[in-house]
From TrEMBL:
One MF term in the entry's GO annotations: RNA-DNA hybrid ribonuclease activity
PANTHER family attached to this UniProt entry: OS05G0353850 PROTEIN (PTHR47723), POLYNUCLEOTIDYL TRANSFERASE, RIBONUCLEASE H-LIKE SUPERFAMILY PROTEIN (PTHR47723:SF19)
All residue ranges annotated as the RNase H type-1 domain in the record: 2-64
Superkingdom in the source lineage: Eukaryota
Name used for this protein in its record: RNase H type-1 domain-containing protein
InterPro entries from the UniProt entry: RNase_H-like, RNase_H-like_dom_plant, RNaseH_domain, RNaseH_sf
Length: 104
């Protein structure tokens, strides 16, 4: 049994805006074509913008995966590189940290 509802978050506002636009009949970039293909599957996918500060763990994990071998990465334990970021990503924490950085 697979997932029927998927929520994808990105800190790339331009990408999220492009995804929400209706196709205009012109050729789309390769990435947009792949995203459109994923959207046509039998599931509900929502795309949402989040600022990078509110999504630090995902950002750190994505950067870590840039240097990993191609394929699926599975972790038994939380990678050291994102352990602190997960604490920061807890609801309400990121907003407080953003305010702290703004006042420094």
């Amino acid at each position: 049994m697979g997932f029927r509802r998927v929520e994808a978050e990105s800190d790339n506002l331009m990408l999220i805006s492009l995804i929400h636009k209706r196709p205009n009949g012109e050729d789309e970039a390769a990435l947009m074509g792949r995203i459109r293909t994923l959207q046509t599957r039998s599931w509900i996918v929502t795309f949402k913008y989040v600022n990078r500060e509110a999504n630090r763990a995902a950002d750190a994990l994505a950067k870590m995966e840039l240097y990993a071998a191609p394929g699926l990465s599975l972790f038994v334990d939380v990678p050291d590189v994102i352990e602190e970021e997960l604490i920061v990503d807890r609801p309400g924490i990121a907003a407080n940290i953003s305010r702290i950085y703004a006042h420094v």
